[in-house]
Amino acid sequence: MNVRAVEQLQRLSEQKRDKLSAIYQQQRQQVDNYQQQLQLLSQLKQHYMGKEQAHGATMNSAMLINSNQLTSQLTTMIDHHQHEQAIMSAECDHSAQQLQASNQQVKRFEEVKKRWLAKQQYEQVRKEHKLIERTGVSLCDCKNRRV
Fold first, then answer.
1. Measured between alpha carbons, how far is 3 from 65 in angstroms, rounded to an integer?
2. Fewer beta carbons under 10 A from the terminal one: N or C of the chain?
3. Could you give phi then psi for residue 40, rounded to 5 degrees?
4. How far apart are CA 95 and CA 28, in angstroms?
5. By the 8 A CB rule, do 17 and 61 touch?
6. Concatenated DSSP letters for the chain?
7. Could you give phi then psi for residue 59, rounded to 5 degrees?
8. 41-55: pLDDT as tens digits
């Protein structure tokens, strides 16, 4: 494996990481939105139930039926939002784990690339040193022969 191959693998790994990061950010935003909606629904239910208690005995049967239906619908919506939020949170946690693994992979490729570049530099210096030694020996041989 050469440096170009490692660079290409690193680039692909970075692209994958960037896609996973975008997915994670989107999922995080959805979880936050669901949390906000859940809070608003809970506030609406509390507000409505407070008004219901204020009316007390003045409620007729139609108002009582409507009140019960509304309370039931709000409870169902809250339960549904809690369930959806739990699913989205689990998906978001999984995406965070994938993103972390992808970050680690990118770092490993960076380290491999550094090692390959260091090895290439070492090989180049070694070749140059051998060439200098050969040239120096050749020059010495030529001087010794002339004497």
1. 74
2. C
3. -65, -40
4. 10
5. no
6. --HHHHHHHHHHHHHHHHHHHHHHHHHHHHHHHHHHHHHHHHHHHHHHHHHHHHHGGG--HHHHHHHHHHHHHHHHHHHHHHHHHHHHHHHHHHHHHHHHHHHHHHHHHHHHHHHHHHHHHHHHHHHHHHHHHHHHHHHHHHHHHH-
7. -80, 135
8. 999 888 877 766 666
